[in-house]
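Sanity check

After download, print the first record. It should look like this:
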Amino acid sequence: MIQELRTRFNNDEVSLILLSAPEAMDYYPKLGFAKIDNGFVIRRRG
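Expected structure tokens:
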């Protein structure tokens, strides 16, 4: 799903924000998400 969002929406123009269950907090950094207080984000580049 994350790859589909990256493909469909240009990462230069869109940020992806994910609210995570506590059990998954170690998983999302492996996919390129940066940790924020209550979840993870891939920030737009533009």
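If your output differs, re-run the checksum step. Summary of this record's structure: Helices lie at 2-8.
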